[in-house]
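Lab notebook, bench 4. The sequencing result for the construct came back, and we need a structural model before the next group meeting so we can plan mutations. Quick request posted to the team channel:

Model the 3D structure of this chain.
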Amino acid sequence: MIKYQRLEPVIFVHIPKTAGTSVQKIFATWFGKGLIRHYADGITGELPPVFDLRHSESATQAVCLYGHFNQLRGFGIPGRYDFVTQYLTIVRDPIEQTISEYFYIRRVGRNWKDQSRVPTGSLEDHIASAKPNFLNHFPDVITKDNYRDVIEEKFIAVGTTEQLEATINLFAKRLGFKPVEIPRENVTLRDQEISDAHRTAFIERNKLEYLVYEYCKQRLQDELQAAHISEYSRL
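Done. Here's the predicted structure in token form:
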């Protein structure tokens, strides 16, 4: 993975339902005025603008563009931020991310302009056909042939929701900040479960997502060990 260049902009790829809302609070503490939020407006359907990241208010101000970058909805990184060379992200078991997103959108999406994104059926019906909202946020179109190169050549570090505290410790070390306590934000409650058969079928259908997820998990372990950070560390 690459070394952080403080005077160059960095993008944090907030994959939905990976604790990114909580982590954003930490990045706001770290980057201050240099944190720029990049989110579409679900109610109006308005997409985020393209921000000029190369001209911050101060030549010494570290800049982080933080948010969603959904290629399928027209505001992905390719074609908009091709000049950015360094990234961070947190990933999650794709089926857990998809389940959490299902409950979240059902809870908050009733006033969204695009109602086609709001699931109406049961969780198992949704899981039977859902495609994880995951890789389309990455800085390139991800394939089984390029995912390792994209992660190794463009990312300062990758973390996982399942090891969030160790992830934040690693990010702090890579970026040159002090670790801070993780707030609990935007926690989604669940009132349905899925069968083992639905879970197995989902994993079989989404092999690329699981290749990327498992690779990120392994690289996180490698980086924690190299940085002498316990995978069970507490902040």
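The mean pLDDT is 91.
Will bring this to the meeting.
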